[in-house]
Amino acid sequence: MTNSVPKPVMDAEELNAFLSQVYPQLNDHLEGYRVVDVKPGGCTVRLQASEQHLRPGATVSGPALFTLADIGGYACVLSHLGPEALCVTTNLNINFMRKAEAGEILGRSRILKLGRSLMVFDVEMITPANGLTVAHASGTYSIPPKK
Amino acid sequence: MTNSVPKPVMDAEELNAFLSQVYPQLNDHLEGYRVVDVKPGGCTVRLQASEQHLRPGATVSGPALFTLADIGGYACVLSHLGPEALCVTTNLNINFMRKAEAGEILGRSRILKLGRSLMVFDVEMITPANGLTVAHASGTYSIPPKK
Amino acid sequence: MTNSVPKPVMDAEELNAFLSQVYPQLNDHLEGYRVVDVKPGGCTVRLQASEQHLRPGATVSGPALFTLADIGGYACVLSHLGPEALCVTTNLNINFMRKAEAGEILGRSRILKLGRSLMVFDVEMITPANGLTVAHASGTYSIPPKK
Amino acid sequence: MTNSVPKPVMDAEELNAFLSQVYPQLNDHLEGYRVVDVKPGGCTVRLQASEQHLRPGATVSGPALFTLADIGGYACVLSHLGPEALCVTTNLNINFMRKAEAGEILGRSRILKLGRSLMVFDVEMITPANGLTVAHASGTYSIPPKK
């Protein structure tokens, strides 16, 4: 017996449509976050980092990468439980390892545990242009009780 | 002998002027972050949370609070070391405890250690309207070597 | 209105008696952890660090300080909820800031949120001999549902 | 180009011999930690959890799993840099996901970044008896300057 891999119930396009409806702030003010893949036990979210996501030193900012990690967890919980907008992050820990320039960054998130009330996940953030890992995060989403 | 409390070399207005010069993205796209106090060993940063900082459930988003914590650390390191824009976050851990509505949120940051190459800090985020702690973060900034 | 401060229902001696009954491993193999104070919203646990708690470099080891932080959280949840041994840590983040030699280390823990199913806390670990903060932790305990 | 995978310079037996010499506390008081594999970019450490590693509820304690994660990082930095005992943990974040009974637990650690002064790693802890992930950690080791 191994960790049973949970199965998704929403795909990337359904997630993007749902996010643009319930969370318009995500791309109105910080454009560039899109779910690009959903598979059993994980998701990939892409940040197309532009001028507005940079910090001093012309590198992608901590908040922009945190957002990528957080949306990665949100995409995991939504895609595997269905459109329950009120799941919320309770903890997120992020390590910043290398500077990333403007351009594409992929956040590959993975469900470590999907329980009844909590989901634990991690996210590896890489710049596909050079294959480097720029940041790594792990965190917890709280799942509201079924009505 | 006790922990020697480091002394600031920049005040709140100098910090805000420096941030608007080197980090225009902070308030161009996510208006509302201002340093409101600097004292030996710590700073207070205010987020005036509006519609654009909210997530589903009409509560202040994780990324908006992460930004408040991260700027709290940046304000600590800048105010106590001087205008060294290239200090960068290497780790940040954040716990979200209570939902916060739009309005004022204060991030009270505290330097736990100011070494030659690393600064460790924590930030307590409260809603002054009701005195509640909404989130708590701790993290590390890396300080570049003196030229 | 401010954060309501929760009131303890067990004192330091009751906690030590309870810990030695339900968690004999704590002091059988790693002697030296004792609750020395309980007050509304927090506790102090003392580690009397000896040879067995050291790591290479003759400084107190990471696991010994993690244990101090973890017991600090456990003392908070037990003292404020009553003797519910099955509360468990779900997350703990610790920053190590200064080396500590053998001797007394105090872990001052503080309840940041006491909810129905989760308690969030932080712990500042100091060496009273010189007043220095050697480590800082924050974490979450899960509280089992009432039967 | 991809992340260059660092190459180990010590194998599992060399690591165990070095650990028993410089860090006798590890197995004198909490027997059961052994490096069982070293490969480019990572290590596996085994905890043979017995009565002494349990907490209330007869499950493997947080400190025992923290130790497994911490030794996983130490094994990574030692095996890839050589026998530099004075590398120290600066941060470790751990999520506890499932209860583990006494028995074998494997900590599979992975180097996420090996820089000149810092190494970032993560560790997945599984119970091979059932293939479940019981805990996950990420952290940072500080590497002392070359003399």
TrEMBL record, chains A, B, C, D:
Which InterPro entries does this chain map to?
ACOT13, HotDog_dom_sf, PAAI_dom, Thioestr_dom
Give TM regions. none
Q: Does the keyword Cytoplasm apply?
A: no
Q: Which UniProt keywords apply?
A: Hydrolase
Q: Where is the Thioesterase domain?
A: 59-128
Say if the entry is tagged with keyword Hydrolase. Answer: yes
Q: Known Pfam families for this protein?
A: 4HBT (PF03061)
Which superkingdom, per the lineage? Bacteria
Q: Which family does it belong to?
A: Belongs to the thioesterase PaaI family.
Protein name in the entry: PaaI family thioesterase
